[in-house]
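Re: the 593-residue chain
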Amino acid sequence: MRFLEAKDKSLADVLSNNRFRIDSFQREYRWQRKHIEALISDLAISFDKSYQPNDTIESYKDYGSYYMGPIVLCDDNKELSIVDGQQRLTSFTLLLIYLLHTVVDEDMKAEIKKHLYVRKGGKNTLILNVESRTETIEHLITNSLEVLSDNDTIQEYKEFNNTKDESIGNIIARYEDITLLFPEDFKHQDKLQIFIEWLLNHVVLVEITAFSMESAYTIFETMNDRGMSLNPTEILKGYLLSMIDNEDKGEEMNEFWKERIFDLKSAIGVDTDVDFFRNWLRAKYAESKRSTTKGSENLDFELIGTQFHSWVKNNASKLYLKKSDDFYLFIKSDFNFYSNLYINLFKYKNYNNENFRSLYITNFYTIAESLVYPLFLSPISKIDDKESISKKIHLVNKFIDTYTVFRSLLSKSITQSSIRNFMYELIKEIRNTDFDELNSILNLKVGEIQENRNRVYSNLQPMNNWGFYHYFFARLMYFTSENQDSIDFQDLMRSRKQSSFILVPIFFQNDFENENIDESSIYMQLNSVANHILIRRYDSDKYFSTKINKRIDFLIKHKYLLANDDINSQIPISQFIQNRDNAISKLCFEIWG
């Protein structure tokens, strides 16, 4: 009797001619944004190590592979059951759905669909055949959902289903994350098709198949319990403690390490220790990064991201670790200081603290955390007093805020893969700087982002990113509020509450019938940021049923117009939009400069 089979398989092979079930006793789909962000970043980095601009679709065959670890299946002569691996396979399915909508070539679309659907036993089903999720997955496949279309599609779909299913909510949210995080330069059709071929054929998993559920769970438990390998943090701890000669000091640091790792995980989350070491080591010690040349080797920034425990051992001199006391003080002083700072930064970013409210607000739309934390940590040194630390944190946050908003206004990507090289250089440049030097460097960087423009917000700025512009209008509303202390910024953002805000157009195509302007001007005004506004969800039905001559009065009555809007319901639409555009531009300058 067979106990198990283990084979390395490409993603295409795994998601072909199989029908997988996920049993009801399995955990829910629980990946969060950070997991999707890490997956897309890792895939992009691995692909770019081989890709060259002149490559053709056949070139992928010579590219390197990317290993995604083992999955455990149970073959009980019915359907294959996924015992371990559903998080990754579900996430890859969502990525394939996004690629299905993004690629133009019909043959490539047909190829992708082969890895979403299977025909077996006389019926067509999804390859990931989970009945409770089928409607949601098929809705994503058949609808090219962009992030927040004008009718707030994704949010409305959640409410339509009225779902309390954790998996469904996470599936929709992670799909939305993919649409936001997928690198812009990968969307060029030639590169995109090569990437799809590489993804399907060079992303490799080890498929472990057991032939009874008992055997499958024995394997699963062995991999994740008794036989579970040490994580990088534990390996790093073992190395550092082994270099401390004094037994009492070693035991002291062992106890301290365990307590601080517990503190990190309790305050932030179970994987926080790994994220912390990556962010801290990049912030304070990384010097080199991989070049963009094909076949280039990973260097400090990349190696810290994949195997920081080995990097520390191989680069002890960069951390000034030579004798026993150096290792002791590295834990007692450096690790203590920066891990405590890291916990505080997390709290500032995620809780509405009066003294660090700006961090809380900007955290609702920002760059990747794997870049944010190193930027905050880099200029801060152990000799800084509390006031200096606070000033540096606020200064870096102002830069991150301005950088994020300016690039978004310029329709440039803020995904990790598109900005990491710039940020890695900046992390090195601001390392251990005093306040004045830090301020000078960041001001120069802001000037570079502006690209010598007088203003980043252009005349009739186009509405091309609904997620960003909801946040953008929330910032304007918050800034012009008479009593900011009474507002929690999250109440201005999207949620399932009827009292939450949604982004809607002010005027529609037929509203311009009496306007004496050409079609191109109408198009620009209809699709401008100035022709959109935040209203509360519970007012949407009444708003959309209101005729044009009453719509502006409705907005004025309910105080939805910005405080500095110099407009009324009697002026022509084109003048209304232009006046509002000018008001928005002025506010944008006041907030971000």
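The radius of gyration is 26 Å.
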